[in-house]
Amino acid sequence: TFNPSNPLETAEYFVNNELTHRALGSLTFDYNLFKKADQSLNFLGVGGADFYNQENKVFIPPFLQIEEANDEPGQSVMTTTDNLNTNLSLNLVHKLKMPGMNFNTTAGLQYETYDWNSVFVHATGMIPTQTNVDKASSQSVYHDRSKRQDRGKFFQVEGTVGDNIYAAFGMRGDVSSTMGDTEAMEWYPKMAASYQFGEFAGYFDNLKLRFARGETGNMPQAKAKYTTMSSSNIGGVNGLIPASTRGNAGIKPERTAETEFGADFSLMNGLATVEATLYTQNITDLILLVDLPASSGSLYGWENGGEMETKGTELTLGLNPTKLVDLGGLDWNFRMNYYSSESKVTKLNVDPYNFGGFATFLGTYRIEEGWSPTAIVGSETNEDGSYQKLGDENPDYRISFRNSFQFGPIELSFLIDKKEGGHAINLAKLIYDLGGTTADYVENVGGQIINNGGDRLGGLGAVTQPYIESTSYTALRDISVTYTLPGNISDQLGLGYLKVGFSGRNLWLSTDYTGLSPEVSQFGNEAVGGSVDTNPFPLSKSIYLTLSVGL
User: Fold this and answer.
1) Phi-psi region of 235 (alpha: psi -120 to 50; beta: other; left: phi over 0)
2) Could you tell me which InterPro entries the record lists for this protein (predicted)?
3) Is pLDDT of 2 > 70?
């Protein structure tokens, strides 16, 4: 709801409709060029298309309480979006068998297109009883058009020796219309190897050691190489002026190189399974939207301006205790997933700068050599004028626990999700402070009145820390219970089986975060700057009752 507003009136007359049409299609052509006892060569062609049309209609009548105080009461919004994605892949697949060895070789071409067209019309000052966007005192129109074409070449060779050794090598070349040079193909190699010991040292049912090294590219945005022009009226004459963001005609894709080592093994006839991975990721030619000096004529510009390193750990543990202990017919499976990562900007070709948020004194993100790219800063500085780090968007680690139980016809499964560390810029608290409605705005501690909200507002502009909060939490992500009815009941109904069940998502959350949810953001899922809270809708809690039948 809105403030001030009558929520019942808003629910009755506020119109917000969305209609989506979508069509998907694909075609596969597989032709054997030759086949012998020890080898074969196939041609495989795959093409597809994905089209959708989305129409949004929002209408707020001028008589609603939320509109009465506006200069132009009443709003009508109409948005139409068309999006078409196509892809074509042409491949040659060669398979070769030799005594104790097998080889698969693949080579091919890929072509993909992306076409986005969206028109947004916003009308204000609506004529009473009218809903059309042209029946208003003023209108604003925004048209967003984006096209992209990507081309790729690749080959890969995979080989196995017996049941123990696996090795692969490949190379891929990509070029995109979003690159500065649309004919300069970027090549990315990859390799992988693993060795499977089988039973080992009397402890492992199976042990596999693995290694992989690969490179890939992240293409720039379609607009990054262009300096757009905006219309302007100067002395009654229509003209063009450059926009505030300067394009880069030589923009290149980011290049990511990742190396990982891992081990997978199982113990005691499947009682436990473990998958462990250590990885290092290095990104060069970071695509950055940087501040520019005023003398350049632009405020911002796109640059390949730095390098970044990320180190991480991934661990998966699976347990089936019923392999070891008879629990009287109860089957129990447990699975834990853990991962952590730490990133650092190792090189920056431009001056350090702040990014994201609404203003530095409200909290923003600092891009600086030697710092985490998700570090949060504010008004606080050191004696030398450098920024103090107030927090970091990136968590220390994430861990989840999945438990699944089955006892006769009853099945129970639930997932506990825990995030430790990480911070958000909680501007929802600031909004509540400004309205004097924060839960702890005024507290009575031992008969002494403490004006927490007033103290926070009094320091605003010089102290940002009170609005930087930890986003650690523990959540019951999902839970489900199902019951399979006795076979005689399903047989009488002519069914193979009949199950009834209950499931829920996001039903419980424990956190010290004072906002509505530590998982939401004003700006959605962003690599940097995705932890600004201005009270967007939290994740919805959902409950389902299910009925499953088999024939």
Assistant:
1) left
2) Beta-barrel_TonB_sf
3) no
Which tens digits make up the pLDDT trace of 97-139? Answer: 999 999 999 999 999 999 999 999 999 999 988 999 999 999 9
C-alpha span between 340 and 489 (Å, rounded): 49
Q: What gap in Å lies between CA 217 and CA 298, rounded to an integer?
A: 28
Q: Contact 468/430 with Cβ under 8 angstroms? A: no
pLDDT tops 50 at residue 459: yes
Query: Would you say residue 25 has pLDDT above 60?
Result: yes
SS3 36: coil
Would you state the pLDDT for residue 201?
Answer: 60
Mean pLDDT value across the chain = 92
Q: Work out the number of other CB atoms within 10 angstroms of the CB of residue 60.
A: 22
Residue in the structure block whose two tokens are 């790219």: 373
- Under DSSP, the state recorded for 353 is E
The residue assigned the tokens 């009461």 is 73
Domains of the chain, first to last: 1-151 (no CATH), 163-351 (2.40.170.20)
Q: pLDDT for 188-242, tens place per residue?
A: 999 999 999 877 666 788 899 999 999 999 999 888 999 888 888 888 888 888 8
89-110 per-residue burial string, b: 16 or more CB within 10 A, e: under 16: bebebbbeeeeeeeeebbbbeb
Q: CA distances (Å), 133 to each of 58, 64, 78, 269, in order?
A: 10, 18, 7, 69
Q: Is 142 exposed, middle or buried (0-12, 13-18, 19+ CB in 10 A)?
A: exposed
pLDDT at 231: 81
User: 3-state SS of the chain: helix, strand, coil percent to 5?
Assistant: 10, 60, 30
Q: How far, in Å, CA of 158 to CA of 94, rounded? A: 11
Element (H, E) at 116: strand 101-126
In this structure, are residues 280 and 311 in contact, taking their beta carbons and an 8 Å threshold?
Answer: yes
* Averaged pLDDT for residues 456-478: 95
Which tokens belong to 8? 């019942």
Q: How many beta carbons lie within 10 A of that of residue 339, not counting itself?
A: 16
Strand 423-426 with 532-533, pairing: parallel
CA nearest to 459, candidates 368, 341, 538, 380 = 380
DSSP result, 263-313: EEEEETTTTEEEEEEEEEEEEES-EEEEE--GGGT-SEEEEE-EEEEEEEE
User: How many percent of the chain have pLDDT more than 70?
Assistant: 99
Please give the structure tokens belonging to residue 284: 């060069």
Q: What is the DSSP letter of 251?
A: -
